[in-house]
Amino acid sequence: MISSLKGSKKIEVLFQEGFSIKKEGLLLKGYMFNDGKITFGVSVPKKNFKSAVKRNLLKRRIREAVRNSNNLSLVPFGFSFFVVYNFKNVLESKEIRMCIDSLLLMLTKKIN
After folding, report:
1. Burial grade of 28 (CB within 10 A; 0-12, 13-18, 19 or more)
2. Which of 39, 41, 45, 51 is a good FRET partner for 78, with 20 to 30 A between their CA atoms?
């Protein structure tokens, strides 16, 4: 089961000590906490999208793409990751899902 990444200390450790994977306009930061659950977070910078409506739309699309990804079952328990959206335009759900799937596949290859 996957859940949301909560707690500023965990997020701080993830960004300071974790590794990065870039795919087109998406950045994935990951770290193995060994806490027995898979957690993730999403960020859409205000610098790229001034409108909160667009930022929230993109966050919802990314969360849904992660939860429905076929490659999520390959991620080991205890792993946490954070997805940062760096595209300059709003992508459709299908495009985001394809990018997330390829990012998670790259992630599993890097871990194993």
Report:
1. buried
2. 45
Query: Looking up tokens 């759900």, which residue turns up?
Result: 93
Two tokens at 42? 């999403």
User: What's the residue count for the chain?
Assistant: 112
Distance CA 24, CA 12 (A): 24
**E-assigned strands of 25-89?**
26-32, 38-43, 79-85
Average pLDDT, the chain: 93
What is the amino acid identity at position 56? N
Rg for the chain, CA atoms, rounded: 13
Q: For residue 112, give Cα distances in angstroms to 41, 48, 52, 96, 101.
A: 22, 34, 37, 24, 17
Helix (H) / strand (E) element for 21: namely: strand 19-23
- List, for residues 6-39, the tens digit of each pLDDT value: 888 999 999 999 999 998 899 999 999 988 889 9
